[in-house]
Amino acid sequence: ATDITSSALQGDALSLQTINTFLDILATVASDVALTMGAVDGVYLSGGILPRLGKLLDRDRFLQRFQAKGRMQSYCERIPIALVNVENPGLRGCAQALLRQI
């Protein structure tokens, strides 16, 4: 993954195509999950891969793919999407929950 990302950042067409295919699949799966779970309040994308992609993440392409759900497109268009850029968001959330209990 690191080599593909590095090559894509350097302009390698095949690596960029690989990144775009990965992001297309991610957008499709994320919208499938959002529809399944009824996630009208938003979808939060987190993890180690997405923040590393930086400028390779074509936000318009991702959003278009996320919303491409046929008759459910208008529903998906109302779902906000956020990219989580902090380290250890799960641990931070646990710490905040613990602080609220104290």
Major sheet strand order? 1-2
SSE arrangement, N to C? HHEHHHEH
Number of helix segments?
A: 6
Main pleated sheet: 2 strands, parallel
Q: By helix and strand content, what is the structural category? A: mainly alpha
Shape: flat
**Poorly predicted sequence stretches spanning 5 or more consecutive residues:** none
Percent in strands: 5-15%
* Mean pLDDT over all positions: 93
Number of strands: 2
Oligomer: single chain
Helix content: 55-70%
Radius of gyration: 16 Å
What separation lies between the terminal Cα atoms?
42 Å
What characteristics describe this protein?
102 residues; mainly alpha; 6 helices; 2 strands
Summarize this entry quickly:
With 102 residues, the protein is mainly alpha-helical. It is built from 6 helices and 2 strands, in the order ααβαααβα.
